[in-house]
Amino acid sequence: MRSEVLAAVEAELAEHGYDGLTIDAVAVRSGVHRTTLYRRWKSVSGLLVDLLEAGADDAWEPADTGSLEGDLIAVNREVQAALTARPSVTQAVIAASFRTPEAAEALTRFWDDRYRRTAVLVARAVDRGELPAGVDAHQLLLTATGPVYHQLVLLRQPMSRAQADHHARIAAKAFAAARAADLP
Amino acid sequence: MRSEVLAAVEAELAEHGYDGLTIDAVAVRSGVHRTTLYRRWKSVSGLLVDLLEAGADDAWEPADTGSLEGDLIAVNREVQAALTARPSVTQAVIAASFRTPEAAEALTRFWDDRYRRTAVLVARAVDRGELPAGVDAHQLLLTATGPVYHQLVLLRQPMSRAQADHHARIAAKAFAAARAADLP
């Protein structure tokens, strides 16, 4: 039942945004009775939090392309695609995080988990000798992904896949070229 | 009158956030009658939009430190300070941009203007021979500022001034080292 309900939450969120998300619409779309939804998830905010927690339970891991640059390009393409999808569940969840503290906390936990999992690509690059040991994986991932999120979410301007690729390359080259002591 | 009203909007926004911003509170704080506020600004959203438009009218320009790296560090320090101020007007305005389309559009125009003005530091670096001609100033500024915004606004995690400095250095070095054809 949980997966059907969460699929309905995702679809409603994508179509109508957080403001248009209602327990009744989720009930109709999922075929689960509204009384059951209220009992288990309590509110629209509870549904959103559970959607993000389910995301943290999944088997997602970053692609292993064999190079730091390739791995970062794959990450940035995933981010760029998620943020430019029409409709975009990711954009709807981000908007929701500015509405309720519960959504903000759930999104912080979700991303914390995703960035931790993505750090494996930095460890692989260190093992291959592409990066100096001691590189701060999170700061490297911020260098690659931060410009994509900033442009598409906060500045609300376009960013092509090619530009997202370039930001991945900048991050790979900057961190590969630096001595560890010079890095954030 | 406008500057007194907007100073009151800024103070109320910083203290109570967009959800706590009311015409009545702005009237009390500014000493301007609520009827006047309603006539000229129509709504809370109208006050916020005017605050951002006033920001686009000001004389702000980026510091001229004599080097690309120094200029970018100054920009990133300003961003980091604005986002970590307690209370932060910038964070409140960003949150408001996810509440009303008018606020989102006003913030997009405000940042568009700020990034355009900041591009002068890239032109200066090209003139000094620090950067190849044809560099995309906006992509360079995104490389520096994007990680700071992403970490402090969307990921809701700390970023020190030293880390913000490092992201400025990464941007300066990456764009100075590249041939123009390799850049986003």
From the structure above, extract its key features.
72% helix; HTH_TetR (chains A, B); Tetracycline Repressor, domain 2; DNA-binding (chains A, B); homodimer; HTH tetR-type domain-containing protein (chains A, B); 184 residues; HTH-type_TetR-like_transc_reg (chains A, B); mainly alpha
Description:
- The first copy, chain A, folds into 2 domains: 2-56, Arc Repressor Mutant, subunit A (Orthogonal Bundle); 61-182, Orthogonal Bundle (Tetracycline Repressor, domain 2), CATH 1.10.357.
- In chain A, helix 5 (68-84) packs parallel to helix 9 and helix 5 (68-84) runs antiparallel to helix 10 (161-177).
- The model of chain A has no long low-confidence stretch (mean pLDDT 92).
- Helices cover 72% and strands 0% of the residues of chain A.
- The termini of chain A are far apart.
- With 184 residues, chain A is mostly helical.
- The interface between A and B is large, with 40 and 39 residues.
- Chains A, B: Residues 1-59 form the HTH tetR-type domain.
- Chains A, B: This is HTH tetR-type domain-containing protein.
The greatest interface here is:
A-B, 40 and 39 residues
Q: What class, by secondary structure content of chain A?
A: mainly alpha
**At CATH's second level, what is the architecture of the largest domain in chain A?**
Orthogonal Bundle
What's the CATH superfamily of the largest domain in chain A, by name? Tetracycline Repressor, domain 2
CA radius of gyration of chain A: 19 Å
Please mark out the parts of chain A with pLDDT under 50 across 5 or more consecutive residues, or reply none: none
Count all strands of chain A and give the number. Answer: 0
- Spatial shape of chain A: elongated
Element string of chain A (H = helix, E = strand): HHHHHHHHHH
Total discrete domains of chain A? 2
Q: What percent strand of chain A?
A: under 5%
CATH topology of the largest domain in chain A: Tetracycline Repressor, domain 2
Distance between the termini of chain A: 45 Å
The average pLDDT value of chain A, as a whole number, equals 92
Helical content class of chain A: over 70%
Please, how many helices of chain A?
Answer: 10
Assign the CATH class of the largest domain in chain A. Mainly Alpha
Sheet with the most strands, sense and barrel status of chain A: none
Assembly state of the chains shown:
homodimer
